Amino acid sequence: MAPSVFLSHLLPLVRGSLCRKAPCPSRTAVRRSQFLSVEGNRVLAGTVDRFGGVTVDLTESGLPEDISEGAFGRLLGDSLVQWRAEGKVAVWLRVPISLSRCAAAASTHGFTFHHAKHDHAVLALWLGEGESRLPGFATHQVGVAGAVLDESNGKVLVVQDRNKTKNAWKFPGGLSDPGENIGATAVREVFEETGVRSEFRSLLSIRQQHCHPGAFGMSDMYVICRLSPLTHAINFCTRECLRCEWLDLAELTRTSDTTPITSRVARLLLHGLEQGFSEIDLSMEELPAVYSGRFYQLYHRQLPPTLKS
Q1: Cross-referenced PANTHER family, in alphabetical order (predicted)?
Q2: Which of 257, 246, 240 is nearest to 148 (CA)?
Q3: Active-site residue, from 60, 69, 180, 192
């Protein structure tokens, strides 16, 4: 399976009375920090964002590698005095694991952990008025499955997971990687689990579940896509799957050896096969994002040609 990934909040803006939230910084947005001298005190310098927050990356701060917890605590205390005087609303502190003792020092000044990834942790401190308006970090993980349907014979590709309490038929799938589109996840996971190559056609369903087992207390979004096969030969992964077959779609709708969501989507697919997939598909359209200059994927029922423009 793909490694676990979480889907983060959208991070809205701080705009005075609108009480919106300030964004969490990314490492790429951080310029090299230097020490500043303010009224005889050494003060950490960082990147100031347009919302009035300052980001300090300790990997780029010029700190001595052997700095003590106490010495860093004093330096951070002097910095906070300066930032408050300048009216900064928040501080984001990126701490590499090699300087984890600095996190302990920061906690004495009110910093709390915001998130951790691989070799660093990010701590945050709200300096503005009232309750913190800083965003939380991850709340969801995204799982994607691919229902590979052969329209020529009405068969669909299904697997039974290994090491499950109930070996029920289900569509192959796994967790989406960071920066990976839903359709790409479905195609990749189907190939990794079954050896069958396929192409994305549409989105069929989304399930939301909270406190999902194995998701570290987070919520889970589970997406099922409709795929078309490019190959048919099965070479399934024996580490993850106990069985893999092309199963008659009508049989999948009737069998008790499946999961409730698989059974429901199988009936949805059967309806599409009989009545036309325009009745069930949420197709994907790529559109330009207004602010970032990038593109995003929008999933929706097809519009009549006269309404597209």
Answers
A1: NUCLEOSIDE DIPHOSPHATE-LINKED MOIETY X MOTIF 6, NUDIX HYDROLASE RELATED
A2: 246
A3: 192
